Structure formats: structure tokens, C-alpha cells
From TrEMBL:
Name recorded for this polypeptide: J domain-containing protein
Superkingdom, natural source: Bacteria
Source species: Agrobacterium bohemicum
Length: 149
């Protein structure tokens, strides 16, 4: 504060003194003090023919190619291994022998599941994958029960 006044008050007083000391040089062109056009510029945007309003868009669209529909995807053929769902087919793939232990049977179950699990195939082939997994689990469970005797 300068001499009992805030900084803001002292700046306002100084600006008022500067305005009083300088004589006005020119009157503003409008009541708001804006030196610009005194009237607005208006263009005639109406047309006689209403269809001519879309001409720029029509010219642009004429250069575009007509969209071609995407070809329908060909149905995928079921893999051959998923078509073999019988117990004998799955048994041949597992190749369970009398020499297998619980550990080797567990490894056979995991490797068969990695290749045949229903979550790893397309939805339309899941029925066959379920049948194969069911058969494999049945055969491996029987072999483990045989080991426990």
C-alpha cells in the first residue's frame, strides 16, 4: 500500500491522470469505440432452383465409387481329427498301454486337451470336441482305476 492506498487503487488513479493529460485525438466511429464497418455484410443465399443447393455435394459424390458388398465367408470345413469321435478312434490317438503310469496318463490327458479342448475350436465344432474330450477322459480314468488295483 502506498500512502494508505492499495496497489490497485494507486494504479487506477495513475491511469485516470494519464487519460486526463492526453487530449482525445479522434472520435470513435461507433458508440462502442470499434473502428470497423458500420454495417454488416449480407450475401443473398437463396436460389431459384432448390435442387441446386446440393450441387457441391452431388459433384463430390459423383467421384466416389459404389460400395461393393463383401463376399460371404465360406463355411469352414471341420478338421478331420474332430470327425473321429468314437471310443476306438480316441483310444488309438491316446495310445494307452499297460506300461503307462499315473504321471504319463496325466500328461496324455493334458496334451490331448491342449489339442482338442472345446474352447479352442470354433463354436460350430464344439459338439465333436466335447465328445472327443469325454471319450478321452473316460479312457484315461479307466486306465488310472486299473493302475490302482
Amino acid at each position: 500500500m502506498l500512502f494508505g492506498q492499495s496497489v490497485f487503487q494507486s494504479v487506477v488513479e495513475r491511469l485516470e491522470r494519464e487519460v486526463e493529460d492526453t487530449p482525445p485525438t479522434e472520435e470513435p466511429a461507433s458508440a462502442f469505440g470499434i473502428n470497423s464497418f458500420s454495417a454488416s455484410i449480407v450475401f443473398d443465399t437463396t436460389t431459384q432452383d432448390p435442387s441446386s443447393a446440393n450441387l457441391p455435394l452431388d459433384f463430390y459424390l459423383d467421384f466416389l465409387e459404389e460400395p461393393t458388398p463383401a463376399p460371404a465367408p465360406e463355411p469352414e470345413r471341420m478338421p478331420a481329427y474332430l470327425e473321429r469321435t468314437s471310443l476306438s478312434d480316441v483310444s488309438d490317438e491316446l495310445a494307452i498301454t499297460e506300461k503307462d503310469t499315473a504321471e504319463t496318463l496325466g500328461e496324455k490327458r493334458r496334451s490331448f486337451a491342449r489339442a482338442n479342448h472345446p474352447d479352442a475350436v470354433r463354436p460350430e465344432f464344439r459338439d465333436n470336441a466335447n465328445r472327443r474330450m469325454t471319450a478321452a477322459n473316460l479312457l484315461i480314468d479307466q486306465a488310472i482305476r486299473f493302475l490302482d488295483r
